[in-house]
Amino acid sequence: MKIFFLLSIMLVACLGVQAVTIGFVSNVSSNSTDWRNDVLARGCQISTLDFSSHPNGALVSTHYQAQYGVTLSASNGFNSVVYSTGSSSGTTSTTPKSTGEGLHSTATSMLVDNDASSSLTVSFDRAIFGIGFYLVDLYNPSNIHPYKLEAFTGVNGTGTSLGSVNAAGYNFQLNYIYFMGLVSTAGDIRSVVISDIVSGTGDGVFIDDIVFASVPELSTWCLLLVASALVFRFHRNWR
């Protein structure tokens, strides 16, 4: 009876998970480490969409589909991959300034946003727990050029919104790295939209890498728990 009771509790917990969305945007010098520690503690594995593997030029939405089950959909400025250190023209001395997670000093292929009011949608074949973006050269002193990160239960930014966070209000020029991340404790993220929510700034921002965290599908574990509970109950009834 005790075993069946424990199985029942685990089954209810599995079927009745309620999502809490956690943002990793405030600790500008350690957001990526905090995000990584959180998802690893949940038993996730981390995958990286490295734009160095993407051909330079127009963004190919299905480039990561076969390997990761990920599609990318862009509007306006998020439309090309370039080989660059990440620097853009602009006012680099405006305060408050931050060195973020360090200097991005090596030239590599990155996704570039050259236009205001643009967005990038990342969709997944199956639900994930968390996602993070390494931004380079963000110019957002006192929130004049914020980026927004929002997660959804459906692909292509559809379904229920799981919550959103905005970029920290600092100037990360020239070439400093700033990480924005989200985690849903229920592991129910099917898409994430990162967007430039203020028009008319004319700032150029780069995405170096996109990381995401996933585990074996929860439904598999739930079915195993159901099967175990039924077998145990059947065994008890026929003793």
Furnish the topology, listing elements before pairings:
Blueprint: H1 2-15, E1 21-24, H2 31-41, E2 45-50, E3 57-58, H3 65-68, E4 70-75, E5 78-84, E6 108-113, E7 119-128, E8 130-136, E9 147-152, E10 161-166, E11 177-184, E12 189-196, E13 205-214, H4 218-237
Antiparallel strand pairs: 1-11, 2-13, 3-5, 4-7, 5-6, 6-13, 7-12, 8-11, 8-13, 9-10, 9-12
Low-pLDDT parts are 1-16, 218-235
Task: Label the overall shape.
Answer: globular
The secondary structure category is: alpha+beta
Name the CATH architecture. Answer: Sandwich
- What helical percentage do the residues reach? 10-25%
Could you tell me the strand content as a percent range?
A: 35-45%
Please report the number of helical segments. Answer: 4
Q: Could you tell me how far the N terminus lies from the C terminus, measured between alpha carbons in angstroms?
A: 13 Å
Question: Main β-sheet: number of strands, strand sense, barrel status?
Answer: 8 strands, antiparallel
What is the CATH topology? Jelly Rolls
* Fourth-tier CATH superfamily name: Galactose-binding lectin
Mean of residue pLDDT values: 84
* Number of separate structural domains: 1
Q: Roughly how many Å is the radius of gyration?
A: 21 Å
Give the SSE string.
HEHEEHEEEEEEEEEEH
Please provide a written account of the structure.
This protein has 239 residues and is α+β, with helices and mostly antiparallel strands. It has a single domain (19-215), classed as Sandwich (Jelly Rolls). The chain has helices at 2-15, 31-41, 65-68, 218-237, and strands at residues 21-24, 45-50, 57-58, 70-75, 78-84, 108-113, 119-128, 130-136, 147-152, 161-166, 177-184, 189-196, 205-214. The two termini are 13 Å apart.
